[in-house]
Amino acid sequence: MQSWMMGLVSGIVLAGFWPALPPWPILLVFAGVAIAAHIRPTPLMVFTGGLALGPALGMIHGTQLLQSRIAAECVGMPITVKGTVSSLPRVSQMPDRGRMQRFEMMVAELLPQQCEGPQKSCCPITASRQLRPVMSGSLK
Predict the structure, then answer these.
(1) Where are the domains of the chain?
(2) Residue 138's pLDDT band (cuts 50, 70, 90)
């Protein structure tokens, strides 16, 4: 039981470092390995089963997060967001792109409406000009 849990936790942690979710057939491979590893329950096989189950659970969780945030018809569609800036700009140094600024924005209106998402958004800006706080104005 302890080796299974160590494998499961290791698999979940490893899945957290993936830059993108792999295709669905990979999930079937992970599930097959997890099931096959329990046919001969030696400590190494049980660890391998947990190690295979961790990324499978990570893929399922990641897919559910994506499905709850982006409507399928909105993928790749340009959107218009109107709202108010709710934080001061934060500046980060990027290793290859120079500087990046980010600010939080409270979304008042989002068009098209079927693409509605979270009410608070973090907006990155990689332009060469620098944002400065002002009392009123617009960002273009």
Answers:
(1) 2-69, 76-125
(2) low
> What CA–CA distance (Å, rounded) separates 93 from 3?
42
Which residue stretches of the chain are H helix?
2-15, 24-36, 43-69
pLDDT of amino acid 120: 83
Model confidence over 25-43: pLDDT tens digits? 888 898 888 888 888 888 8
For residue 132, give both structure tokens. Answer: 């400065």
Confidence of residue 123 (pLDDT cuts 50, 70, 90): confident
For residue 4, give every residue at least 6 positions away whose Cβ sits within 8 Å of its Cβ, in sequence order, or none: 46, 47, 49, 50
What secondary structure letter does DSSP report for 130?
Answer: P
Query: DSSP code of 85?
Result: E
Distance CA 86, CA 139 (A): 13
The bridge status of strand 98-111 relative to strand 120-125 is antiparallel
Mean pLDDT over residues 86-114, rounded? Answer: 82
User: What type of residue sits at position 13?
Assistant: V
Whether 108 contacts 84, CB under 8 Å: yes
Maximum Cα–Cα distance across the chain: 68
